[in-house]
Amino acid sequence: MALITGSEQKQFEATQHFMNIICTFVLNLQGIASLLSDPESSSSEGTLVEADPGPTTLSELLTLESSVEPWHYISLLTLRALTTNMDVCLYLNNTIKFQEKLLKLQSENITFDSDITETEGTRVKSSSANKFIIIDQCSLMRHQILVATYIVGGPRERILPPTIIDTDGNGESGLFCTLPPPQLTSAAKKKRSTQPRGQTDFQRFLQDTKQGVHDANWLSHARRAYKASFNIDIKACVLIDLLEQAAKLSCNSESYLNSPMQIYESDVLFPEECLGIQVAIRYGLELHLLQENSQNEENLTQLIHLSHNLLRHKKCETFQGFDWFMATLFLLCGGNVERCHSCIKSISSLAVAPFLWPALATAKDQCTFSQHLVMFGHKLELLVKMELPLAFSALQLAGASWWLICRQWMAQCFWNILDWSQICHWLVVSVLNQPDFTLYFCVSLLRHIEPKILQAASEGKLWEQIMFAPMEGYHIGDQLTFMEKLSKRYRTSVLHHLLPSSNNTA
């Protein structure tokens, strides 16, 4: 009950402690699903809160049926944290229909009563057709959650609305009670004109060497050409070209995919996967990677089916996560299914493929790759401890594992974490280097936010910093020298743990 009783400071501290606990579950879809599907399991061993009349389980906390304070605000804080995991977001939107409920509650904040008076913490704002919007802490929090769960994008691609009442009211005009929002809170369209024209050194290199020999010498020159272009956005066609040429380096390697590219009629998508397809298409349209086309949904659905069959999934009874990497390839290929087929074949032969595409990890040898994944996490924690000891200690004190955080971000291809341009650079760097470079990339992410992490830790808000504002201002080009230093320092002791077989192209 400390969440809603006691002094304001005690309530704040109790809320921070509660949210830290919730954030530790965010990275685990199956854990969240278990908490919601078995509400009586904790009745004899303690509950999320200690006494009535408040909710005693996570499922009760997330009913979202009423906007009665104070538990409603706690439930919104909880929902905001949980939905930072895109798989959990899809799961919750399917199981508890949180978007529908939030929109309903937002509509209840609209009144035609012009005599309603403002109180402390509440603002009344006039709208069209003699409507008046009641704006308070909860309506602003609901507004932010709706925007954050509908619009995909990195720090520069979407702007999340504030959750604090603005004294001049300028930040409150966008409240809505239907989807899509009347105006998308996104900067992607504004940025299109900043794209450079003409070819980069890297693009020219790929074109000039397309028909040549692809060996270790070619790879070395490709890295050098990329370093001359890393401050410029990578075009999708360039990344696709790189995938096709890099695959020639692994022409003697056994592909991870041995099944023919066909779809079986018996395969049925989970409702969460259908929602994920809609999310991906919206992102592609916003970035102008896709054109308005009735075939987009059908084509991506076909590719998700294809993913199931190629990777020979055993049919799971429950949703295990959306294939964000396949969706990323779909956007890169402009929605062209045949081009996606070619990219899938190209990338499946690369040593780094299972680290980029988690769903691929079980296609060849689940046991072996699980061992590699455990070793990847172990090595990442060791590198962070040695290279960034202050950040490592801060994470440990907050009960956070940088490996588990990065694993979730990698699983969703850094959507909502990095801007699309940086996601493309991440893929290029990964393809041009061995799997150990993925480790150094993960370390560079923490290095970038270390000052903010340390400041947030001193205020008891470390999880909030990681979940809600993780990678603002991150550019791979700024970190490439650091990653190369780590490679020289640790490659000999790290790389062989991450390779499935003897495959050590420089």
- Number of distinct beta strands: 3
- Name the overall outline: globular
Alpha-beta content class: mainly alpha
**Rg on CA atoms, Å:** 24 Å
**Number of structural domains:** 3
Strand order of the largest sheet: 1-3-2
Mean pLDDT: 85
Ends distance: 59 Å
Q: What is the string of helix and strand elements? A: HHHHHHEEEHHHHHHHHHHHHHHHHHH
Given as residue ranges, the uncertain stretches (5+ residues, pLDDT < 50) are 41-47, 188-194
Helix content: 40-55%
Largest sheet: 3 strands, antiparallel
Please work out how many helical segments DSSP would assign. Answer: 24
Q: In percent terms, what proportion of residues is strand?
A: under 5%
Protein name: BROMI C-terminal Rab TBC-like domain-containing protein
InterPro entries: BROMI_C (IPR055392), Rab-GAP_TBC_sf (IPR035969)
Pfam family, one: BROMI_C
Organism: Zootermopsis nevadensis (Dampwood termite)
Secondary structure layout plus pairing:
Blueprint: H1 8-26, H2 29-37, H3 58-61, H4 71-82, H5 86-95, H6 98-107, E1 110-111, E2 122-126, E3 132-136, H7 137-150, H8 188-191, H9 201-208, H10 216-227, H11 236-246, H12 271-286, H13 295-310, H14 324-332, H15 337-348, H16 353-356, H17 361-364, H18 366-387, H19 389-397, H20 402-411, H21 420-432, H22 436-458, H23 462-468, H24 476-494
Antiparallel strand pairs: 1-3, 2-3
Q: Would you give an account of this structure?
A:
- This protein has 506 residues and is mainly α.
- The protein folds into three domains: 8-190, no CATH class; 233-361; 365-497, Cyclin A, domain 1, CATH 1.10.472.
- 55% of the residues lie in helices and 2% in strands.
- The protein has 24 helices and three strands.
- It has a three-stranded antiparallel beta sheet with strand order 1-3-2.
- A hairpin with a 5-residue loop joins strand 2 (122-126) and strand 3.
- Helix 9 crosses helix 11 (236-246), helix 11 (236-246) packs parallel to helix 21 and helix 18 crosses helix 20 (402-411).
- The radius of gyration is 24 Å and the shape is globular.
- Residues 41-47 and 188-194 have low confidence and may be disordered.
